[in-house]
């Protein structure tokens, strides 16, 4: 798998091919830290990025980690993830805190975790 | 205290289900990646987002060449807090073009650390402005590059920092020091999100069949 500087050497053509030129419908649900888990194994003939995602996400893996692993911009990664989600090949564990203030319980848990570092 | 097991963890717990974000923002070379590396259980990873100035991410790639696209790189590290909560730390450049992407990347962030080099305080003005404007709670951490000593009052003055914003000194190369910066931020968040000041939580309505 190529792990060079992401994005830089990706021609628009390559990105276009990856996403079939689709826009981001449905992919907004994926926060940078949404944890993705594979629900199936790669199958022969699958788009290689899709297969790579399924291998990467055998354990929970954040969207941003998937993007870094694929060497692709976050927006493109979100579209690839939306494909797999639509077909039930991955599940998504969305952050509980997005779009609202974190609650005290979460902050308390973060503090405990940090103090234990 | 050293926790070798958590430092060497490469995969998350299978029960991990809640990702959290803290953003470390600051000027060039101020130590963002160093701070992330000091506390992260993984080697910091790098990724990018691309967006047109009009505010669309570049996924409709046919128009990339035509529109002026902004690409920003950022790096991140990870701390498994417990078997459910995973904290992601993002190192983000503070310069102007980056802020086009703030909402898209960092909505729902717990808060931010503004990392500053006291020899170049003006580099962080813009980031502080934007965070205040966004209402994102933050702390200011002065990274020790061995410049002339400044008093907290001098730094607060130069940054025009509100009294309630914590100001700390750190050495981003030190795990303990970097950890203290994060703890200061989360303790600050607790005061910002005081129970009394919070809206009463509304139950999420069940979808009606
Ligand atoms: N003396 C000293 N040097 C530091 C400290 N923190 C970082 N450095 C050094 O400063 C340089 C820049 O640190 P980075 O962590 O790469 O800074 P950055 O903010 O990520 O830089 P960019 O991503 O390029 O903007 C490196 O050579 C670090 O080793 C510190 O607390 N004290
Ligand atoms: Mg850096």
From TrEMBL, chain A:
Pfam family, one: DUF742
Region (Disordered): 1-22
Biased segments, Basic and acidic residues type: 1-13
Entry protein name: DUF742 domain-containing protein
From TrEMBL, chain B:
Protein family according to the UniProt entry: Belongs to the GPN-loop GTPase family.
Presence of the UniProt keyword Coiled coil in the record: no
A Pfam family annotated for this UniProt entry: ATP_bind_1
Organism (species): Streptomyces flavochromogenes
Keywords (A to Z) from UniProt: GTP-binding, Hydrolase, Nucleotide-binding
CDD domains: Ras_like_GTPase
Protein name per the record: ATP/GTP-binding protein
């Amino acid at each position: 798998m190529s792990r060079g500087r992401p994005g830089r050497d990706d021609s628009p053509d390559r990105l276009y091919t990856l996403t079939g030129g689709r826009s981001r419908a449905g992919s907004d649900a994926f926060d940078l830290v949404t944890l993705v888990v594979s629900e199936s194994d790669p199958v022969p003939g699958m788009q290689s990025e899709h297969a790579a995602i399924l291998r990467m996400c055998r354990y929970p893996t954040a969207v941003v980690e998937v993007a870094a692993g694929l060497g692709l911009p976050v927006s493109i990664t979100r579209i690839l993830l939306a494909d797999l989600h639509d077909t039930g090949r991955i599940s998504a564990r969305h952050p509980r805190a997005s779009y609202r203030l974190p609650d005290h319980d979460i902050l308390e848990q973060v503090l405990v975790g940090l103090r234990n570092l | 205290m050293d926790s070798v097991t958590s430092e060497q963890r490469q995969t998350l717990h299978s029960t991990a289900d809640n990702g959290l974000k803290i953003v470390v923002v600051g000027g060039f070379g101020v130590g963002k990646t160093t701070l992330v590396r000091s506390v992260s259980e993984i080697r910091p990873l790098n990724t990018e987002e691309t967006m047109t100035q009009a505010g669309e991410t570049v996924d409709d790639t046919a128009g990339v060449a035509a529109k002026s696209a902004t690409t920003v790189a950022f790096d991140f590290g990870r701390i498994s807090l417990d078997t459910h909560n995973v904290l992601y730390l993002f190192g983000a450049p503070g310069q102007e073009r980056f802020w086009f992407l703030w909402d898209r990347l960092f909505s729902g962030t717990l808060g931010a650390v503004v990392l500053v080099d006291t020899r170049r305080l003006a580099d962080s003005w813009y980031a502080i402005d934007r965070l205040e404007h966004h209402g994102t709670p933050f702390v200011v951490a002065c990274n020790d590059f061995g410049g002339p000593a400044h008093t907290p009052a001098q730094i607060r003055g130069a940054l025009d920092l509100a009294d309630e914003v914590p100001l700390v000194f750190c050495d981003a190369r030190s795990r303990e020091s970097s950890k203290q910066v994060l703890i200061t931020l989360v303790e600050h968040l607790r005061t910002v999100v005081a129970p009394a000041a919070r809206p009463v939580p509304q139950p999420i309505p069940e979808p009606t069949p």
